Amino acid sequence: MSLRIFTPAWKVFWLGTALFINLVEIFPFDNLHVRPSFFYSYEFLKAAAFIGLGFEIPLAFWRFNSLNRGLVISLLSAAAIEGIQMFVMGHRLNVFELLLKGILMMFGFTLGLLRRHDERLSLFGFQVRLIAVRDANE
Fold first, then answer.
1. CA pair distance 19, 102, nearest whole angstrom
2. Closest Cα to residue 105, out of 82, 129, 124?
């Protein structure tokens, strides 16, 4: 099986993931009235979403082909998400969260970049060949 990368569909998927993360981050979560297992599951899924967002970047945009660019886009994306939170009541800029989100996105970016260079994605023994299709609009 094969999967085309750098397509408009990947860009839309990346944008959808970014919007989902922003929505989850904007709406406050009342952790005082839920079970700890639910709260920590929620936090784990948020962390996985940031890793996923970073993973999608090198597969959606052909120009992000080095770790330096990955670091820049990861920190800028994390800063944008934290910046949006400043305008929401009950949220404030937290440098620790900014760095953690940047690190999670950079980790995902590194994994995505490795898969991009291997031209192969493997999940639970299922192999997918990645086919690069450069978008002329970039």
1. 16
2. 82
Query: And the tokens for 93?
Result: 């800029």
Neighbours of 44 (CB within 10 A): 10
Question: What pTM was computed for the model?
Answer: 0.83
**Segment 61-93, tens digit of pLDDT:** 888 888 888 888 888 888 888 887 777 766 777
Both tokens of residue 77? 């994306």
For 44, residues 6+ apart whose C-beta sits below 8 A from its C-beta are none
Task: Name the burial class of residue 123, with classes exposed (0-12), middle (13-18) and buried (19+) by CB atoms within 10 angstroms of its CB.
Answer: exposed
How is 74-108 classified by DSSP, letter by letter?
Answer: HHHHHHHHHHHHTTSTT----HHHHHHHHHHHHHH
